[in-house]
């Protein structure tokens, strides 16, 4: 499948327009027919990579009204940046030449809630109530991320059509995940420094279906 070069701001615009259709109930379900399926069978040229939470209520292809081959999607609970996540995003940048990585979080995130509970228990001095399996390790990682902070206090839309709003813990976690992707991947940093890639983050509202974006930035 041939790749037509686009810029990050075009990718953000397509995501924003698709989300507006989804939230307004006017979805088009593009690129989901037989012709598209056959067209992408020989290769892919997504216009953006989306790194999102694993929550079943936040499927990026649906939230942004996209279809087959439109998005390169990587998901993990709480947007934890593990080696497989970095390798997947690096593949999207190096092999598929995506111009944009969007880190997508959401309000009502269970992983963030678990981290907040852990932080509250520590602050109170009460005995810790440990979660089963690997869940406690996930809560620990996110609590450290939230404790460090992202350096940002507000989330805004790219066009600044809405007033910036104070960042919630879910938004802080998402901003920190974007910063971690940038910090831990020399390949992604090099693509950004060369002007070939932008990174942005956004928060999805479970009730309204709307995504609030940050601007594309390093």
From TrEMBL:
Binds 1 zinc ion per subunit. InterPro entries: Carbonic_anhydrase, Carbonic_anhydrase_CS, Carbonic_anhydrase_sf. SUPFAM superfamilies: beta-carbonic anhydrase, cab. Signal peptide: none annotated. Keywords: Lyase, Metal-binding, Zinc. Zn(2+) binds at residues 53, 55, 106, 109. It catalyses: hydrogencarbonate + H(+) = CO2 + H2O. It holds the Pfam family Pro_CA. One of its GO terms (biological process) is carbon utilization. Coiled coil: none annotated. GO terms for molecular function: carbonate dehydratase activity; zinc ion binding. Its EC number is 4.2.1.1. Its cofactor is Zn(2+). The keyword Lyase applies. PANTHER family: CARBONIC ANHYDRASE (PTHR11002), CARBONIC ANHYDRASE 2 (PTHR11002:SF79). Belongs to the beta-class carbonic anhydrase family. Catalyzes the reversible hydration of carbon dioxide to form bicarbonate. Reversible hydration of carbon dioxide. This is Carbonic anhydrase. It comes from Dermabacter vaginalis.
């Amino acid at each position: 499948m041939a790749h037509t070069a686009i810029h990050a701001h075009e990718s953000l615009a397509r995501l924003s327009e698709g989300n507006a259709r989804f939230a307004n109930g006017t979805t088009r379900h593009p690129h989901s027919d037989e012709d598209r399926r056959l067209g992408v069978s020989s290769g892919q040229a997504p216009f953006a990579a989306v790194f999102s939470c694993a929550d079943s209520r936040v499927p990026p292809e649906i939230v942004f009204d996209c279809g087959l081959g439109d998005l390169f999607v990587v998901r993990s609970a709480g947007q934890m940046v593990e080696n497989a996540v970095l390798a997947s995003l690096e593949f999207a940048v190096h092999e598929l030449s995506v111009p944009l990585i969007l880190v997508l979080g959401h309000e009502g995130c269970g992983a963030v809630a678990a981290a907040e509970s852990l932080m509250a228990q520590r602050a109170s001095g009460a005995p810790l109530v440990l979660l089963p399996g690997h869940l406690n390790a996930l809560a620990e990682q996110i609590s450290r991320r939230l404790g460090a902070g992202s350096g940002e206090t507000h989330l805004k839309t790219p066009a600044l059509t809405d007033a910036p709003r104070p960042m919630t813990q879910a938004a802080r976690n998402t901003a920190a995940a974007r910063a971690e992707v940038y910090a831990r991947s020399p390949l992604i940093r090099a693509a950004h420094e060369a002007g070939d890639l932008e990174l942005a983050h956004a928060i999805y509202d479970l009730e309204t279906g709307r995504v609030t974006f940050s601007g594309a930035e390093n």
